[in-house]
């Protein structure tokens, strides 16, 4: 990353390989926009119109409704209405997302978030259409929130580096595998409660996070389609900077001025070395790295 949290968040869209802060920034911006809309439209007597507009971006459980708003399988995962809902989602996304970003890189973090959100939505629709318990609420059930994508990142990080510890208030150091297990159990226990749809989405995201990392370690990346779509839009909206070549005169000969550290990062590790380290993590896990490889990866992630 380039600097502290607020610097990275403020400049999220100015840098590449910055998916964590881009996702957080999009969630925060969408939250603020809809907060302002909700207040002004409600005061102006347009509360019903606001609810209808929001429903077109939320994920419906009914397949019949979803057919007319297929975009909602993506838009729902960037919507929040409650301050504590978005606060806790973004905190967990940040804490566990830093681990995914450090070990697997920015693109795979984005893969996890999007695939987790999609998996959560699919399980939500599947259960509401098949389970008799949910049949009476099928037509009115709508879902929003980043929780499924966040659960995918939480469980993905715990699967990748299960013995990494977070220092929790009152509890001290706790291994992240126990944090992930705790939240999955809570989601399962509440899957028939008032927020059943959300809890089902949590479980769908958690399952995706686990299988994504397990398959990645075996050499299969489920996120290739997501990455392909991302690359398409990245190329579509990116502008190529003008390349200026300068020449320096020495004696009677001319030559182009060499670029310094063209292939090496500031820590001396080449991009090729970093790619090999990431491939090794995907194949054998983070614990297979040597101390020197871990140092290079850590330095690179802090300075890239």
Structure explained in plain terms:
There is one protein chain. The protein is mainly alpha-helical. It has two domains: 227 residues, Up-down Bundle (Rhomboid-like fold), CATH 1.20.1540; 41 residues, no CATH class. Helices cover 62% and strands 7% of the residues. The protein has 13 helices and six strands. The strands form three sheets. Strands 1-2 form a two-stranded antiparallel sheet. The chain has a two-stranded antiparallel sheet with strand order 3-4. Strands 5-6 form a two-stranded antiparallel ribbon. Helix 2 runs antiparallel to helix 6 and helix 7 crosses helix 8. It is a multi-pass membrane protein. One of its GO terms (biological process) is proteolysis. Keywords: Hydrolase, Membrane, Protease, Transmembrane, Transmembrane helix. Its EC number is 3.4.21.105.
Largest sheet: number of strands, sense, barrel closure: 2 strands, antiparallel
Derived structural class: mainly alpha
Indicate the CATH architecture of the largest domain: Up-down Bundle
CATH superfamily of the largest domain: Rhomboid-like
Number of domains: 2
Low-confidence stretches: 240-267
Report the strand count.
6
**Anisotropy-based shape:** globular
Radius of gyration: 22 Å
User: Mean pLDDT score, rounded?
Assistant: 83
CATH class of the largest domain: Mainly Alpha
* Helix and strand element order: HHHEHHHHEHEEHHHEEHH
Beta-strand content: 5-15%
* Sequence of strands across the biggest β-sheet: 1-2
Number of helices: 13
The N- and C-terminal alpha carbons lie at a distance of: 6 Å
């Amino acid at each position: 990353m380039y600097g502290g949290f607020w610097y990275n968040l403020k400049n999220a869209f100015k840098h590449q390989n910055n998916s964590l802060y881009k996702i957080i920034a999009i969630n925060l911006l969408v939250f603020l926009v809809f907060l302002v809309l909700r207040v002004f439209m409600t005061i102006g007597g347009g509360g019903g119109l606001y609810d209808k507009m929001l429903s077109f971006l939320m994920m419906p459980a009914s397949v019949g409704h979803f057919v007319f708003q297929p975009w909602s399988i993506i838009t729902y995962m960037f919507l929040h209405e409650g301050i504590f809902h978005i606060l806790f989602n973004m905190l967990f996304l940040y804490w566990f997302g830093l681990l995914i970003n450090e070990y697997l890189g920015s693109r795979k973090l984005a893969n996890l978030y999007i695939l987790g959100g999609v998996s959560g939505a699919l399980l939500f629709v599947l259960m509401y259409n098949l389970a008799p318990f949910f049949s009476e609420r099928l037509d009115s059930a709508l879902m929003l929130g980043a929780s499924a994508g966040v659960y995918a990142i939480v469980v993905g990080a715990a699967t990748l580096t299960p013995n990494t510890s977070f220092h929790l208030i009152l509890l001290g150091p706790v291994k992240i595998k126990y944090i992930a297990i705790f939240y999955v159990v809570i989601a399962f226990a509440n899957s028939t409660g008032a927020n059943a749809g959300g809890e089902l989405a949590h479980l769908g995201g958690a399952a995706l996070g686990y299988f994504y990392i397990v398959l990645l370690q075996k050499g299969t990346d489920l996120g290739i389609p997501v990455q392909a779509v991302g690359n398409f839009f990245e190329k579509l909206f990116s502008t190529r900077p003008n390349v200026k070549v300068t020449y320096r005169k020495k004696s009677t000969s001319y030559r182009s001025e060499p670029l310094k550290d063209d292939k090496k990062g500031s820590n001396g590790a080449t991009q090729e070395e970093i790619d090999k380290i990431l491939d090794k993590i995907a194949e054998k896990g983070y614990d297979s790295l040597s101390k020197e490889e871990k140092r290079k990866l850590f330095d690179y992630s802090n300075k890239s």
